[in-house]
Design goal:
The protein is of the alpha+beta class. It contains 15 helices and twelve strands. Helices cover 39% and strands 20% of the residues.
Length: 439
C-alpha cells in the first residue's frame, strides 16, 4: 500500500500558522514581484478567484471582500515543508518527497503493525496539524496513481463538508468497491499523468472518468497514450503497482538538472547589477548541487528583457559552456557565469530577468576526467572550502557568506531584488523576525 499526503492550500496555510486572525478569512498568495495569484484559501476560491489571476486585475475585488494578500515568502514555506516532511519520515519506513507540499509513503508490509489504515491516516493528519499547524489530506491505495486519486477525492469531500465517500480528509481504497467508487468520481482529465493533450484524445474516444480509463484495453492505451507509459497508467488504475518509490538522500528525488531564475523587481541596465543576480543564482544552484552530492558539467546563463515593455521586440539571449570536468565549486561556476554573461550582454539594454541552469550532472567523486586532468582537480582544499561555506550559511543564515560578485553595499538592497511589498516575516528562519509573544 502507498499513501499520498498532500498539504491543503499550502502557501496560504503557512501564512495562517503564525497569523491566527486569518482563519476563516480569504487569503491569497502572490507570485514573484507580486505579479499574480499562485495560492488561495478555500474562502478565496469560493469568491471565484483563479490561479494565475493578475494581481492588478483583481485588486479591487480583493479589497471589496477583505481578502488578505500576502507576497510569496519562500523561506517560510520551505522551512514549514521540511518540518512536515521530517515528521512523515518518522511514521513510515520509506518516504518520497514529491513536491514542496506532497509526499508518498510506502506502507508495504506495515498493515499488521499499523492496524486499520484509515485510523492510521487520521493519526498522521492530526499529528501533522498539531506539530506544524498545516492541514493535510491522506489518500491510501495499492498503487501510487490510486493513492493520488484517493487524496483528490478525500480533499474534495473535506472541502464540501458532506458525508460523501470521505469527509474526514482521509480515504483508503483497500477494497475493490471503494476503488471503483473513487474512480467514478474523478474526471479523466484529473488523473495523475493525464495532461491536456491526452485528456482531449480520451474524451474524443469516449473516456470521461477514471473508471472509464481503468477499463481501457491495454493495446489501445499503448497505441494512444505514449506506449508503455500509457499501459502502466491503466494498470495502476486497475490496482497493479507499476511505479516504485524514488527515495534519495534527504528524502527528495535527485534532480537531473538544476535551475535558478528570477524576474527583477525593476529593469536593470548595469552589467555588475545583473552579474550580482547571476552570481546569487549560481551560488544557490551550486548549494543544491552539493546537497544532493552532484557536480555539473554544463552551465547555461540567460538574460531577458521585459515581455510587456514598450520597447519591442522583447528577447532572451543565452550562452552555455561545457566544462572539462564536472564541478560543484561555486567560485568556478561564478567565474564561468561571468564569461557567459559577457557573451550575451548588450550595453544600454533594460533587463527584466536572468537565470542559470546546471545540466550534465554527475556524482561527486565519479566525474569523468578530461584527457589531461588529474584526480586532484576535483578534490582537495576547494572541496573543504565549499563545505565550510555551506556550514557557515546553515549556521548564520542564507547569504551570510557569498561570492564577491553577489554582494552589495551594506544597507543598500540589490538593484534586482524582487518586489514583495506584503511579505510576512521569516518566522522560523531569521532570528530578527521570530514570533514574539507578550505576556
Amino acid at each position: 500500500m502507498f499513501a499520498l499526503v498532500d498539504c491543503n492550500n499550502f502557501y496560504a496555510s503557512c501564512e495562517r500558522v503564525f497569523r491566527p486572525e486569518l482563519e476563516g478569512r480569504p487569503v491569497v498568495v502572490l507570485s514573484n514581484n507580486d505579479g499574480c495569484i499562485i495560492a488561495r484559501s478555500n474562502e478565496a476560491k469560493a469568491l471565484g478567484l483563479k490561479m494565475g489571476d493578475p494581481y492588478f486585475q483583481v485588486r479591487e475585488l480583493l479589497r471589496q471582500h477583505d481578502v488578505a494578500v500576502c507576497s510569496s515568502n519562500y523561506e517560510l514555506y520551505g522551512d514549514m515543508s521540511r518540518r512536515v516532511m521530517w515528521y512523515l519520515g518518522q511514521v513510515a519506513p520509506e518516504l518520497e518527497v514529491y513536491s514542496i507540499d506532497e509526499a508518498f509513503l510506502n506502507l508495504s508490509g506495515m498493515t499488521r503493525y499499523l492496524g486499520d489504515l484509515t485510523e492510521y491516516g487520521a493519526r498522521v493528519r492530526a499529528d501533522v496539524l498539531q506539530r506544524t499547524g498545516i492541514p493535510v489530506c491522506v489518500g491510501m491505495a495499492p498503487t501510487k496513481t490510486l493513492a493520488k486519486l484517493a487524496n483528490r477525492v478525500a480533499k474534495a469531500a473535506s472541502k464540501a463538508a458532506t458525508p460523501a465517500l470521505s469527509g474526514s480528509g482521509v480515504l483508503c481504497l483497500d477494497t475493490d468497491d471503494k476503488r471503483q467508487d473513487a474512480l467514478a468520481r474523478v474526471g479523466v482529465e484529473d488523473v495523475w499523468g493525464v495532461g491536456h493533450q491526452y485528456a482531449t484524445k480520451l474524451y474524443a474516444a469516449g473516456y470521461r472518468t477514471a473508471a472509464d480509463l481503468a477499463a481501457c484495453p491495454l493495446p489501445w492505451a499503448r497505441k494512444n497514450l505514449g506506449g508503455v507509459v500509457g499501459m502502466r497508467l491503466v494498470r495502476e488504475l486497475q490496482g497493479y503497482p507499476c511505479l516504485s518509490m524514488e527515495p534519495s538522500e534527504g528524502g527528495g528525488a535527485v534532480r537531473k538538472s538544476i535551475a535558478c531564475t528570477r524576474s527583477f523587481g525593476k529593469p536593470v541596465t548595469a552589467f555588475e547589477d545583473v552579474m550580482g543576480a547571476v552570481a546569487t543564482f549560481v551560488s544557490r544552484a551550486a548549494e543544491k548541487l552539493r546537497r544532493q552530492g552532484s557536480a555539473a558539467r554544463v552551465l547555461t546563463v540567460f538574460v531577458s528583457t521585459n515581455r510587456f515593455g514598450n520597447e519591442p521586440p522583447p528577447f532572451t539571449r543565452s550562452a552555455l559552456v561545457t566544462l572539462s570536468v564536472a564541478t560543484d565549486d561555486t567560485l568556478e561556476l561564478a567565474a564561468q557565469a561571468r564569461l557567459m554573461l559577457g557573451k550575451v550582454w548588450r550595453p544600454g539594454t533594460l533587463y527584466k530577468k536572468a537565470g542559470v541552469m546546471l545540466d550534465g550532472l554527475e556524482r561527486v567523486g565519479e566525474q569523468q576526467l578530461g584527457l589531461f586532468e588529474q584526480p586532484a582537480a576535483v578534490s582537495g582544499k576547494r572541496m573543504e572550502l565549499m563545505g565550510t561555506l555551506d556550514a557557515l550559511n546553515r549556521q548564520y543564515g542564507k547569504g551570510a557568506v557569498m561570492v564577491g560578485s553577489a554582494s552589495v553595499r551594506k544597507g543598500v538592497g540589490a538593484a534586482w531584488e524582487m518586489n514583495r511589498e506584503q511579505k510576512s516575516p521569516a518566522y522560523t528562519t531569521s532570528w530578527g523576525e521570530l514570533w514574539r509573544v507578550w505576556v
